[in-house]
């Protein structure tokens, strides 16, 4: 049993070191795969009658993209997801695609995905202590509720302005674009933080790694 645990620790360190040192071709391939995972998770949709923003499962894959691919490439995977969808591939929520989505009710959230994955990828690679459950939970809460929701709510507000001719109040934006997703997001974040703790090595795997706390 001890040997199996040691092998597990060694394997995850080897895999993360490999993904850090591997070729650009492999990194682009992995980024595209994570973009596809985001597209697949986006098809798990629960529409809500009182808001144009649906519940989806893609937030989980966005957070994990930063964890699995690290700084830069986690964000690049979401850039790929965004631009391929804007080009017309119907892998946004509800099998939609096209450039008009960017000015729709969900456009701001898509932009937030990129920065959330970049943010988490940076901490995963740079700080060993961030790979434990509690600091990762805090980082994911920040990534989700600030980095994703701020541009998301701004985009929702712009869409409502274009549709109704007046910009909504902050309370209206929060009630339409944040509160309905609060519990579900906390569940996804908790699961993602637990998964991140399990799969990430607890020792440095790149030279610039800082073993201190973020």
Question: What do you see in this structure?
Answer:
The protein has one domain (2-199): Orthogonal Bundle (Arp2/3 complex 21 kDa subunit ARPC3). Strand 1 and strand 2 (55-56) form a beta hairpin. The mean pLDDT is 91. The longest helix has 32 residues, at 133-164. The protein has 214 residues and is mostly helical. It has a two-stranded antiparallel ribbon. Helices cover 66% and strands 2% of the residues. Helix 3 (58-69) crosses helix 4 (73-86), helix 4 (73-86) packs antiparallel against helix 5 (107-126) and helix 5 (107-126) packs antiparallel against helix 6 (133-164).
- Fill in the CATH topology: Arp2/3 complex 21 kDa subunit ARPC3
Distance between the termini: 33 Å
What is the overall number of helices?
Answer: 8
What value does the average pLDDT take?
Answer: 91
Relative strand content: under 5%
Order of helices and strands: HHEEHHHHHH
Number of strands: 2
Q: What Rg do the Cα atoms give?
A: 18 Å
Instruction: Specify the CATH class.
Output: Mainly Alpha
Binned, the helix content reads 55-70%
Largest sheet: 2 strands, antiparallel
Count of structural domains: 1
Class derived from helix and strand content: mainly alpha
Uncertain residue ranges = none
Strand order of the largest sheet: 1-2
What is the second-level CATH architecture?
Orthogonal Bundle
Dominant shape: globular
